[in-house]
Specification:
Elements: H1 34-37, H2 40-48, E1 56-66, E2 69-76, E3 85-91, E4 100-107, H3 121-124, H4 127-139, H5 160-163, H6 168-181
Antiparallel strand pairs: 1-2, 2-3, 3-4
């Protein structure tokens, strides 16, 4: 940073650090926009666009997502989603009095039932699983893959040259005739 002539560098004064919440960046923590925080009905209507009315519980609160941006949270009453919360993020333009819906969805909380983390197959195989597989393969002979019939099979009723459609049948017949003549 360059200083302009006549200005002096002021010592940096640490700003008051707001209370941090898990999963929310510090710059987003703060007092929510009063107009948007009061738009609970707009937020509920937005969530109803993706959920049934019976799936949305009571309003849990509004949190600031930045300047003129607020997220409303609602309890989830949807079966199988205990501990999850519905959300609707609203925003407005500077000096505007109309809320715009930015995003709606369903989020897990600390009390949510979640699927276990994905584990690669190579890490899911336990040593006892591998030992069982080795023992099973040692007990019986491995199955042999099915073999395709060859053209020299005695039960072949069709002429392989007759099945070719790319013009090579004529060439095959020509070569067969030459080999008979050379004997």
């Amino acid at each position: 940073m360059t200083e302009l002539p006549g200005e002096s560098a002021a010592p940096a004064v640490p700003a008051a650090i707001p209370e941090a919440r898990p999963g929310v960046p510090l710059w987003r923590v703060g007092k929510p926009d009063a107009f948007l925080a009061a738009e609970v009905a707009t937020a509920r209507t937005a969530v109803q666009s993706i959920a049934g009315s019976g799936d949305i519980g009571k309003h849990l609160g509004a949190r600031s997502e930045g300047v003129r941006c607020v997220t409303h949270l609602f309890e989830s009453e949807k079966p199988g989603y205990r501990g999850w919360v519905w959300f609707a993020t609203l925003a407005r333009i500077s000096r505007g009095k109309a809320a715009t819906v930015n995003e709606v969805g369903l989020l897990p909380t600390e009390d949510s039932v979640l699927a276990p983390a994905w584990v690669p197959w190579s890490e899911r195989v336990r040593p006892e699983d591998q030992q069982a597989a080795d023992a099973a393969s040692g007990q019986g002979a491995p199955a042999e893959p099915a073999q395709e019939p060859t053209a020299s099979s005695a039960d072949t009723d069709t002429d392989p040259a007759a099945e070719q459609t790319d013009g090579s049948a004529d060439a095959q017949g020509h070569w067969d005739n030459e080999s008979e003549e050379s004997h």
